[in-house]
Design brief:
alpha/beta; 8 helices; 12 strands; Arc Repressor Mutant, subunit A; Rossmann fold; five-stranded parallel β-sheet
Length: 221
């Protein structure tokens, strides 16, 4: 479920937006001031932000540059062209003026979420001798195909997306649970053991190492 953070101190507009978004299947988070918005953003990462400018505490203009990596649609009563230009140049993904048509806003939200997904889609990963094609759902070692289960594939993909990081076991479970609900804390070790063996049988060496007490990472391949 995509999550949208509404940053607006107007209860009526916020409630209306929450109702409209919930009916479309979005999860909704709320913040009523700029300061509260930054607190929420320090704890969760929504998929999109709807940002009012006239906020108590920190203004929307002050909050905007502190939001990184999340598309922001400014929802404001300000209609001056220069205001819009400054905000778009300052990092806003889009701008819609109050009062607005909810269908137009929903369309703008859908566009930004689709754009984010497209930009974030990587169809192939290569780390040393390992190659993963997410379109064909194939993994090769030194160009030799390796047959993996769905769970093994998901684990390897996560490790290849973060090739220099140690990924904690709890993080692996959290990140792959939607794709592999059969993987549990008790079975994760066996899945990784099977994955390591399959890669080793083809490549002749270890490609995944256990970091004692923490989790797993790719070896320097």
């Amino acid at each position: 479920m995509k999550q949208i953070l509404i940053i607006d101190d107007d209860m009526y507009i916020g409630n209306m937006l929450e109702e409209v978004l919930a009916k479309q299947g979005y999860g909704v988070l709320r913040a009523y001031s700029g300061t509260e918005a930054l607190l929420v953003l320090s704890q969760v990462t929504p998929d999109l932000v709807l940002l009012d400018l006239m906020l108590p505490g920190l203004s929307g203009e002050e909050v905007l540059p502190r939001i990184k990596g999340i598309p922001v649609i400014v929802v404001s009563a300000k209609v001056d062209i220069q205001d819009k230009v400054n905000l778009l140049l300052g990092g806003a993904a889009d701008y819609i003026t109050k009062p607005f048509d909810t269908q137009e806003l929903l369309a703008r939200i859908a566009v930004q979420l689709r754009k984010k997904e497209t930009e974030g889609t990587v169809t192939a990963l290569t780390v040393g001798e390992l190659h993963l094609d997410s379109v064909l759902h194939e993994v090769t070692v030194r160009s030799v195909p390796v047959r993996l289960t769905r769970t093994e594939y998901a684990i390897l993909k996560l490790l290849m997306q973060n090739p220099k990081q140690v990924i904690a076991k709890s993080v692996i479970l959290e990140r792959i649970i939607e794709d592999t609900p059969d993987c549990t804390e008790s079975s994760l070790k066996q899945h990784i053991s099977n994955l390591r063996k399959k890669l080793r049988d083809v490549g002749g060496k270890e490609y995944i190492e256990a970091v004692w007490g923490i989790g797993f990472k790719l070896t320097d391949v």
